[in-house]
Amino acid sequence: MDTPQHLALPITKEYIRTLPVFPNLAAENILVIQTLEQCLALQAELDAIRIFGFDTESKPTFKVGEKSTGPHLIQLATPNQAYLFQVSPEILAFLKPILENEQQLKVGFGLKNDTHIFRAKGISSNAMIDLSKSFSSFGYRSQVGIQTAIALLFQRYFAKSKKISTSNWSVKHLSPQQIHYAAADAYAALLCFEQLYQQQLLTPQLLQQIMKILEGSADKA
């Protein structure tokens, strides 16, 4: 995917919709994980990964004062694979070491709420890198969402369906649309990180934090 050289900023939603569609991972490269046995079979594979694209999904709340019981889905992605974990107490316990691992980067957008949710569940998430404020070089001083990020970095249209995003993520069997949507969020976040890193567009503070994590990971290996 090409990187845009000249764009009128800020770009509009109308402009974004005119772009070629973002190419998500193929269905065979998206793994839906429902059991602890599936998790354990992936243990060595996941332990060897240094950088994950990351996101979560939760069943939406509609009533005033209603508390979320999420996350109901936790997504991790590599350049070639997305892992969609349907959360249960056992699976959350399995993922806790990854979420708390200071030498495994988890990169995504809008992660502040995820950190709060995990803390409430006794998980102190580490090495979580929020890319939302990494677009000052494009003229954006406030937070940028993943759709705008993909348009800026790759000139692609990253479709976001409100119907899917507000669907019931706690169901036992996710729909193909939910699976596609969830995988894309984590996969696209990873691609954005790689592009920002390669183009040296990350803030010095964030880059310093990332280098410390990656160097620690290399030393540990």
Automatic annotation (TrEMBL):
Entries under PANTHER family matching the protein: 3'-5' EXONUCLEASE (PTHR13620:SF109), 3-5 EXONUCLEASE (PTHR13620)
Hydrolase as UniProt keyword: yes
Single GO term (MF): nucleic acid binding
BP GO annotations: nucleobase-containing compound metabolic process
Sequence ranges assigned to domain 3'-5' exonuclease in this UniProt record: 30-201
Name of the protein: 3'-5' exonuclease
Region forming the signal peptide: none
The keyword Protein biosynthesis is annotated on this UniProt entry: no
Pfam families for the chain: DNA_pol_A_exo1
Originating species: Acinetobacter colistiniresistens
InterPro entries membership: 3'-5'_exonuclease_dom (IPR002562), 3-5_Exonuclease_domain (IPR051132), RNaseH-like_sf (IPR012337), RNaseH_sf (IPR036397)
Keywords, sorted A to Z: Exonuclease, Hydrolase, Magnesium, Metal-binding, Nuclease
